[in-house]
Amino acid sequence: GSREPGDEFYYKIGIQANSVTSQAVSFVDTLPKGIDFVSAVYPATITPTKNATTGETTLKGTLGIIGNTAKAGAAEIVYVRFKVKVATTATPGNYVNKASIINGTATPIA
Q1: From residue 84, how far is each of 8, 14, 24, 44, 81 by CA, in Å?
Q2: Which residues 6+ apart lie within 8 Å of 10 measured at CB?
Q3: What does the alpha-carbon distance between residue 56 and residue 54 come to, in Å, rounded to a whole number?
Q4: Which end of the chain, N or C, is more open, meaning fewer C-beta atoms within 10 Å of its C-beta?
Q5: Residue 97 pLDDT level (bands cut at 50, 70, 90)
Q6: Is 27 helix (H, G, I), strand (E, B) or coil?
Q7: What phi and psi values does residue 60 have, to the nearest 5 degrees?
Q8: Which of 48, 49, 36 is CA-nearest to residue 88?
Q9: Which pTM value belongs to this model?
């Protein structure tokens, strides 16, 4: 839905592992200028870094080892929930974040 400057809202990304990962899964999600990071909800440890030049905020997260150990070959999806805020200086328009896996064998999903 539509958001106004100063509004806080939640969004989530899913990380899918089709088998048990052999190492911790790390991901990065880049928020565009005009969207500010507030907090994240378990299970990920999040480190936010704001780029002073572009205004983007990079959220680097680590989940640990994921995958469905109870059912071999069954996919497991872990969701990470973020709370963000529309900056009071944000210009109207559509904003898109960019999530990707940087370590581990998993896939980000919408």
Answers
A1: 6, 17, 25, 16, 10
A2: 81, 82, 83, 84
A3: 5
A4: N
A5: confident
A6: strand
A7: -100, 130
A8: 36
A9: 0.78
Residue for token digits 């150990």?
A: 69
List the structure tokens of 108: 């980000």
At which residue do the structure tokens 């509004």 appear?
7
Least Cα distance to 62 among 23, 91, 27 occurs for 27
Amino acid at 81: R
Contact (CB, 8 A) for 17 and 105: yes
Q: Give residue 34's pLDDT.
A: 92
- Mean pLDDT over 77-97 rounds to 85
